[in-house]
Write a structure and sequence with these properties.
Layout: H1 14-37, H2 40-55, E1 59-63, H3 69-77, E2 81-86, H4 89-101, E3 108-112, E4 125-131, H5 140-150, E5 151-162, H6 168-190, H7 195-205, H8 210-218, E6 222-229, E7 234-240
Parallel strand pairs: 1-2, 1-4, 2-3, 4-5
Antiparallel strand pairs: 5-7, 6-7
Helix pairs in contact: 1-4, 1-6, 2-3, 6-7
Length: about 240
C-alpha cells in the first residue's frame, strides 16, 4: 500500500502530519464535512450504530474519534461506557463540547492517544469502532492488531471507510467530485490547501473491500466482512475476536 502524506514537503512521518492537519482544520471540520458529504455520512453512521446496538456492548472504544460524532452517537444509542480516542487535541476539544452539550460526561471520555499504541490493557473493551480513520493509520496492520489486542474474546470491530465505486459512471462522478470540487471548496473554507486534497488521495491508495478484510484476517480478526454503502462510496466492515 502506497503511503500518502498530508504535507508532502514537510518533515515528519504520516502520524505527525495527520495530527497537524486535523489540528489545523478542527474549527471548520464539522460544518464543512456536512456540506461536502451532503449529510450522507450521517446515514452511514446510523447503519454502524445499528450493528453496535444489536451487539449490546458494555464498553466501546471509538478510535480516530475526531470531533466525537460517533462516540456521542454510540453513547446515545446504547448504555455503553465509551472512550473516544484521537491524535488531535484540537479535534478532541470540539468533541468535548459535544459531550458536555449532551450531558454525557459520565459515560464518554475523550482521550488523546495513538491508535497504534493504545494506552489500555489487553481484552478490556467489548467493541471498537472507527469511522473514516483507518486510512490515516501510519501502519495499518499494527493499528488493527492493537485494536484486536484491547478487545475481549467475542468482541467486535466495526469500521466505516471510503471505498471505490464499482460502477464506472458512479466512479467517474465520485472521482470528479473528490479530486476537483472537494479540494477547491475545502481550501476556500478551511484555509488548509492540502487537507482536502489528501482525503481523495488517501482513499485511492487505501486497500478497499476484500483487500482490507484480508488485512483484518491477517492480524487475527475472525471471518471479517464488508458491506458496500451508497454504490460502494463507503464500506462498512465488521470483524470478531
Amino acid at each position: 500500500m502506497a503511503t500518502v502524506l498530508p504535507y508532502d514537503d514537510d518533515q515528519g512521518g504520516k502520524k505527525a502530519q495527520v495530527r497537524q492537519m486535523f489540528d489545523n482544520i478542527a474549527g471548520t471540520y464539522d460544518p464543512l464535512n456536512r456540506v461536502l458529504s451532503f449529510g450522507i455520512d450521517q446515514g452511514w453512521r446510523k447503519k454502524l450504530i445499528a450493528r453496535v446496538r444489536k451487539h449490546a456492548p458494555a464498553s466501546v472504544i471509538d478510535i480516530a474519534t475526531g470531533t466525537g460524532d460517533l462516540a456521542v452517537a454510540v453513547a446515545q444509542a446504547t448504555p455503553a461506557q465509551v472512550v473516544g480516542l484521537d491524535l488531535s487535541p484540537n479535534m478532541l476539544q470540539v468533541g468535548k463540547g459535544k459531550v458536555a452539550a449532551k450531558h454525557l460526561q459520565n459515560r464518554v471520555e475523550m482521550v488523546v492517544g495513538d491508535s497504534e499504541a493504545l494506552p489500555y490493557p489487553d481484552a478490556c473493551f467489548d467493541a471498537a469502532t472507527v469511522a473514516f480513520g483507518v486510512r490515516n493509520f501510519e501502519d495499518l496492520p499494527k493499528g488493527l492488531a492493537e485494536i484486536r489486542r484491547v478487545l475481549k474474546p467475542g468482541g467486535k470491530l466495526w469500521v466505516l471507510e471510503f471505498g471505490r465505486p464499482a460502477n464506472p459512471l458512479v466512479r467517474w462522478g465520485y472521482n470528479f467530485y473528490s479530486f476537483t470540487l472537494l479540494p477547491f471548496v475545502g481550501k476556500l473554507v478551511s484555509k488548509d490547501a492540502r487537507a482536502y486534497s489528501y482525503l481523495p488521495e488517501s482513499v485511492r491508495a487505501f486497500p478497499s473491500g476484500s483487500a482490507f478484510t484480508s488485512v483484518m484476517e491477517q492480524v487475527g480478526f475472525k471471518s471479517p466482512t464488508f458491506r458496500p454503502l451508497t454504490f460502494g462510496i463507503c464500506m462498512l466492515y465488521e470483524g470478531s475476536v
